[in-house]
Amino acid sequence: MKFDGVKNAPILLLMVTTIAVDRCSAQLPTPSAINFIGIGYNILEGNPEGGELGSGGVDPGLLVSRRILELSYDNAKLSSDSQYRVPDEVYFVPRSSAYTSSSRTTFHGTQSYASKLSAQVDVSGSYSSVFTNVEFAASARYETISNRMSSQGSVFFATQTIRNLGNARYLTELARPNGYALNNGFISDACSLPNSYNEAAYMQFLNAWGTHIVIEVDLGTREGTNYEESRSSFVEYASTQVSASLSAAGSYAGYSASIAVNMDSFNSGMESGTSFGSTYSSYTVGSSELNEPIKLELIGLHEVFDEKYWTLLSTYIGSGHCTSSFQRSSVGSNVLTAMQNYANYASIAERTGDGQVLIPLTWPDGTYGLPKPTSGCPNSEFTWPEGYRHHDTEDDNSNNQWSNPLNLAGSFSRNNMRHHFCMKTTSVVDSNLQWSWQPGSYCIYKYNSCPADFTEGSIYWDDEDNNNGNSASGTKPSGGYNSNTQIFFCCRSDGVTDRAIFLPTEDNFILSPSLFDLPSGQRNDSNEELVSLGQRR
Where does the record locate the signal sequence feature (predicted)? Predict the structure, then answer.
């Protein structure tokens, strides 16, 4: 009796302790996002920003009702800090304090948008590039933004803040030695597939179970906002913020010239704290309760047909979930074939590279005038109303001068001069093709009001007093046209003269210099010419 009393006591104590530990672990929470590990993922329909615009939330590619890798809790396993209950097949490391990171990106086509999304969804393993040119393309949010970029020419600026609170990973390296199980529903469907490839059967299988499997998740929160800007407004923004990113380009959209933005140059030159566009969509994924994954790592669905995931095949056959005729390797190869053809089957076209960010090169917005060249007013999408001013300058001691040759329309003599004008009287010709005057050192004629960033000024001529023959006709710059002449100008001196400004150059035009500094007009055949009207001294 004494032997039994001595020896049985520690055994009884050990049993009580074990039961207590099991009960304690059962009461601990499990981060719900861990339950996304081992489920199917459809990479065509997925989008890390969530579902419909404005809703955010869980990635629609996550097939929460399609578990492929089974999770169990037989070993009373805990997280590294002993605060969470963790599946036997998973390793989970929570962070004691959040790691926060922020990012800023731009996108203007489906390629750059998909690149932004793929930063939150990594695909590893063999044949990881199968869906590179079609991933996310069937998601509602992708289609909506894609339509905005193609139909409106929108350019987007995106901000995103991530708070990483932990990481959970399926222990793929222990699948074979520990005999990890597959989900019975998945086993049943997989074992029902024909050993020879049948497109309908295998495509239905992908529709049901997805193209990939989630094997690792980051937990925490991810918040982001996409800002939209029209293409013309974006190019104008780039011209003022990162002017080195602009260059002249060829014909575009029926116009003889265009302006291109090098997006790599723009992104690298964009200063911290600057932004463009107005809010288009926002999203929030996850919370401090670790209920949603904020980043995924996937393997292709064909990977799960590796023998290391089927160590319990005999058990599956014995339970009736599989049959002895099942050819695992052949079915796995067929699944890969189906994956390679899945996008075409789903009528999802492959992405092509993003095109250039281009806008037609048009005359800047605003009302103003230019001196008329001998070749006539510029040929543009609108008509320039014309006018002239005849100066009866001083007959005695006149000091009129002009360049020779002179490309300025009009008549020029010792004591009389006639100047012709090309006037833009409509401020905005096409709201979809807006463009502004750029920084420089030059003047234009004033008409009603000066465009933004110009300063008003005028020149007054005291013309001939005797038998004055002044006359004027047509549309003229703002000013006074009687026996004397006053013409108003709009001038700016906020740029350097050796930096090109972008203006249509298919026809000749003339800019008046500010303080005799003449900016280049993005053409290599510009010349400086001079007209001087003498005054009595």
Answer: 1-26
